[in-house]
């Protein structure tokens, strides 16, 4: 007969304290600014600007209600349409960063979709985001950078025009171009010219692929767009050559755990993330749309730690993984890495709770 395992023994897997996981310094690189707007804020903005929100954005209390990804995306677009001034961007950015900092977030790359806000110029939007980010940094220390996301639905030519606009208004905090929206709306190949132009100007490149689409989408992102990171990428599990290639190249995958997404087959997502980690991919965890889909990143950490039986070493590895995937300049990343390392060491004795012997 074997001895009963002690689930709180440091040598064992699992049992990490929620307080510890919340306090862990965290960095994420895959988070949509407009997916950070809580329903109460969306309703306030929509009323101010006379925008009609879908029922699922109005009557779900603290949560948005939607049955599937497509319906969620419709709500997301309505929330985008409710942000019509630089001050709206400032308020949303500030609120989202301060909220996340309460759960240990120290660095975030925020994507936003300029094409979903036709009332504003690119510079008005970035100006608002930067003002909100500055205020959040002064209050909490959280550092952020911006990813300009191309909405696939608008096609390749509009994407090229967007990149031209980005290059005409350079901001050091804008570090990358991304691609999001409905993965069924257009192949990555449509966006080659936009990505080529962004790369030539020194911007980093990322793209959503392999969340709803198949692995050929991901191969296009790698071979035709030349991405430096893959957002989601679960479909790699269906293609052993792609899996081996990306494990060897160490290209970062920004995965999302989504404990609060009842419409998604959550168990399947958890299995995928666990399988990707087991396959040796360079994986970090991200909240994606913390207000729309939920939850905040620290809640993902708490759930993933319990479900996957994280050790302290696992928790520390995931805390640092977002920095490895970051597109911030080397000085900023190294500064954050030093801070994280010191903080992880300081927190280590608390990993199993204050009363643990
Ligand atoms: N996936 C794709 N596009 C998006 C998302 C998402 O979760 N959120 C906002 N745009
Ligand atoms: Zn996303």
In words, what does this structure look like?
It is globular, with a radius of gyration of 20 Å. β5 (about 205-210), α9 (about 215-225) and β6 (about 230) form a beta-alpha-beta unit. It contains 14 helices and eight strands. An eight-stranded parallel β-sheet has the order 1-2-3-4-5-6-7-8. The chain has one domain (about 20-35, about 85-350): Metal-dependent hydrolases (TIM Barrel), CATH 3.20.20. Mean pLDDT is about 95; it is low at about 1-10. With about 350 residues, it is an alpha/beta fold. The relative contact order is 0.15. The chain has helices spanning about 20-25, 40-50, 55-60, 70-80, 85-100, 120-140, 155-170, 190-200, 215-225, 240-250, 265-280, 295-310, 310-325, 330-345, and strands at about 25-30, 105-110, 145-150, 175-180, 205-210, 230, 250-255, 280-285. Zinc ion binds near residues 30, 32, 180, 231 and 288.
